Amino acid sequence: MSLVVAWLGVDTHGPSSAYIAADSRISWNNNIHYDYGRKVFAFNNSPDILGYCGDVIFPSIVLSQIIEMADCGLLFDAKNTSTEKVEIILKILEQSLIKYPTEYNSTMGSTFQVIYISRDQKDNKIFHCHLFQWKRELGWCVTPISLPSKSGILLVLGSGKKEFDDKYMCYQVEGNANTSRNVFHCFCDTLFNVRNPYVGGAPQLVGLIRKPESVAKKYGIIVDNNRYFFGAQIDIMSNYDKIEWRNDLFELCDGNTMTKKPIAQSQPNNVKEY
Questions:
Q1: What is the SS3 string spanning the chain?
Q2: Which of 8, 272, 18, 7 lies closest to 156, judged by CA?
Q3: Cβ-Cβ contacts under 8 Å for 266 (sequence gap 6 or more)
Q4: Fewest CB atoms within 10 Å of the CB: 5, 105, 159, 236?
Q5: What's the distance, Cα to Cα, between the start and end of the chain in Å?
Q6: Alpha-carbon gap, residue 91 to 44, rounded angstroms
Q7: Is the per-residue pLDDT at 274 higher than 60?
């Protein structure tokens, strides 16, 4: 299973950003796990992000294909509305699942979920969130998710949901209540102290911002003086300034020094256990 959290940032002008964060653990029976599993995705050429929870093999393969199709201009273009994009993505998911070997359907579990968040390409102040859900007995269902009027959660999915929800109550009564950063604070706090053995690994993060004509963002994450990108540790590489980096406090960091940038706003967490 997983811990996947999606949230919306809101300022005085309305929705300003949206994010999907996930753990990186893939688990099997007998407490065997692998902490380098990718669970969130960002489109290179449009303001769209995806994340999944539940089965690993089918969503990770098909969502990667969807991203590549879109980035090559095969899937949709700047004229497509978010509603049209939802229909296109659903059609690909349906077609791909039909081709999945029936002999292995039982290994997928009873359900899996895909979060899709997009920003309108004509009006950069409009954001949309949808949940795609497949259940063995019912098939596919797409649910539009209402956006909060203040910065806050859109969706929490996975076996770590209860631990996150219980901890989030503490974050909502402190000084950071109803902020975008407190969701990520709570996510990291939950991940680093989780009791559920099916949740673990490094945080991974994608997001959207309100900036006109901007595309989805892929973030590197710094934890304990190590760099992670989509769950994979990348401390043996270079050119770290090619992407934006955040630490577990959601502070903007220098990818080379792994310290908070001097111009970055401090985001203290007065609730964390770690």
A1: CCCEEEEEEEECCEEEEEEEEECCCEECCCCCEECCCCCEEECCCCCEEEEEECCCHHHHHHHHHHHHHHHCCCCCCCCCCHHHHHHHHHHHHHHHHHCCCHHHHHHHCCEEEEEEEEECCCCCCCEEEEEEEEECCCEEEEEECCCCCCCEEEEEECCCHHHHHHHHHHHCCCCCCCCHHHHHHHHHHHHHHCCCCCCCCCCEEEEEECCCCCCCEEEEEEECCEEEECCEECCCCCCHHHCEEEECCCCEECCCCCCECCCCCCCCCCCCCC
A2: 7
A3: 249, 251, 260
A4: 236
A5: 23
A6: 21
A7: no
Phi and psi for 185 in degrees, rounded to 5? -55, -50
pLDDT value, residue 101? 79
Whose structure tokens read 């996510």?
187
Instruction: Please tell me the pTM assigned to this model.
Output: 0.95
Q: Given this model, what pLDDT does residue 263 score? A: 92
Residue 57 forms beta bridges with which residues? none
Q: How confident is the model at residue 268 (pLDDT cuts 50, 70, 90)?
A: confident
Beta carbons of 158 and 243 less than 8 angstroms apart = no
The string of pLDDT tens digits covering residues 121-167 is 889 999 999 999 998 888 899 999 999 999 999 999 999 999 999 99
**Per-residue pLDDT, 133:** 95
Residue-range domains of the chain with CATH: 4-253 (3.60.20.10)
